[in-house]
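thread: overnight batch results

M.L. [08:02]
morning all. the overnight job finished for the chain we discussed friday. pasting input first so we're all looking at the same thing
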Amino acid sequence: VQLQASGGGLVQAGDSLRLSCTVAKRTSSNNGMGWFRQAPGKEREIVAALNWNGALTYYTDSVKGRFTISKDIAKGTAFLQMNSLKPEDTAVYYCAVGLGSGLNTDGTRYRYWGQGTQVTVSS
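M.L. [08:03]
and the structure it wrote out:
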């Protein structure tokens, strides 16, 4: 299954970006999905996740109130709306499709991964 993450770019602090994750095959319609990020020299961390229908969501503390994860169930496409971006949000962002329908915060519980999209926030 091929995932395509897009929407990254170079922005200034305080700006917004909307990341999209499209799936080549609609295998993600009934699966939880998540967004992860990895900054240079740091380990990959989860940013946000949701269960298959978006009724349950999770956000890491540093993005709560600024980021919103959502999903187009019919298309199996996930989105990450990022507002009030900060320089510390700079990273490569990855989307992933979970093993099942639930919400997972553990990266090992994700089956398919996208190639990543770079987000750079300047101060």
